[in-house]
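Reading group handout, session on sequence-to-structure problems. Before we discuss, look at one worked example. The prompt was deliberately terse, the way you'd type it at a terminal:

> structure Pyrethroid hydrolase

The input record follows.
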Amino acid sequence: MNAPSPDSLFVLLHGAWHSSWHWAATQRSLTHRGAASVALDLPGHGFDAPLPSGYLLPGQPGLATEKSALAGLTLDECVASILSTLTEVRGRFRTVVLVAHSAGGGPASLAAETAPHLVDRLVYLSACVPAGRPRFTDYLSTPEQTTTARGRGLGIGDMKSLGALRINPLSADPSYIEDMRQTYYHDVPTEEFVRWRRALSPDLPLALVTTPVHLTAARWGRIPRTFLRLAEDWAATPAMQDLMITEADAFAPDNPFTVRELPGSHSPFAARPDELAAALVSDLG
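And the output record:
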């Protein structure tokens, strides 16, 4: 087993509706491999996530109509929170690896563009790479995504009115919950998925996926980067992942992606955290 040098740190950034909690099993596996890590919560996520007032009540009154408390959250606020952590750890670790999952790829990319000296490697775990197209929604609307992606019926209410992409992890509808599992966690057994979904928050601020991210080859493009491609991902399809990789490599051709593939769903931190940790560690070898 190749262990990373003790002066390396993985900074783990979650995706939509997730939080630092979801990295716990991966962090344990990284620790067993001699790797240091820290998992971040973007503003409005984790313990700080505000909930719609009826979310925990019987019948969930107003869930489809109540404006999100995160409606005004900006991408810049999210990037600032990432940069704060990167600045803090930069002086303590020689090698800092920023790992982003899914919708976390947008703010992670902008953080790296803003301060490339704070990041030694970028790892995209089936994550948004806004090099070819500036918004995650630009990729989510491509034929590469829409042809085979699942989960189109998971949204609650009108996202523009709510100011957020809202889902209902506490739904009492078994078919809705199964659609959620099949979309994001299809290789996690139903009885285990109960725990994972209950740790999700219902609102994703629209700004994270709709605000344009403008990158440059001279700053973001110079940072070594890896794409961990998920072969059976029904939330961010392999075809869309390949499109993002291809367009990013065309954007910064002098520094193309290193691409590694993992089997399974959009959530390897739940289904196979040991394999995920091994892939992260091997990238430093």
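Points for discussion. First: The mean pLDDT is 95. Second: The two ends are 10 Å apart (CA to CA).
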